[in-house]
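Tutorial, part two.
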Amino acid sequence: MCQLSFKRHRFPPAIICHSIWLYARFTLSFRDVEEMLAERGLDISYETLRRWFLKFGSTMAANLRRVRPRPSDHWHLDEMVIVIRRKRYWLWRAVDNEGEVLDFLVQSRRNAKAATKLMKKLLKKQGFAPSRVVTDKLRSYPPAFRSIGLTAEHVHNQRTNNRAESSHQPVRRRERKLQRFKSPGSAQRFLSIHAATYNTFTHQRHLNRRPFYKELRTLSFEVWKTASAAA
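Running the prediction step on this input gives:
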């Protein structure tokens, strides 16, 4: 893992890491986090919190991704519309059949070229090809799969792709809280950090007994502590 350097910072690393965790984990604004910290007697401006998030968030997310177990080989792909500066963009997302966020891509088009770019990014990042891919009925996917030689089973109907469509809900909540994303680059950067944190701390608690869920939650905190360790 890449260790973080907190030198020449006024506040200790524990406060910085906790502030970043609050913003990445929950649907909060920087001003919300500022007020929560103020209640604890910490006078930290929201602009300082924003600089911390931009400086350390990407490294923490990369550390979290390094320790994640290998995802399932059943992938679900979907795309959703996001509006940035009055212009429509498409957020292409891929999750596995357990809800693990595999990757995403902000594109201005909803065509075969964008679908191909997403698949190439997925295959390079994951290091293996899926055995089954579930999509909606968008016609851009079959040409994209043929262009890269993907031989996985392709299931394309709306009802079987509920897993990917449900994964958009956390992003929609954050988009409303942020009053929409400001640029494609900032959306890509924020969602990268958000997805890594989401994968680490989100467990299917309705499927697990309370003692086992508490073990998973404790393990998540240990992983976060390791990913945000100071140099």
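The chain has nine helices and five strands. In part three we will examine how such features are distributed along the chain.
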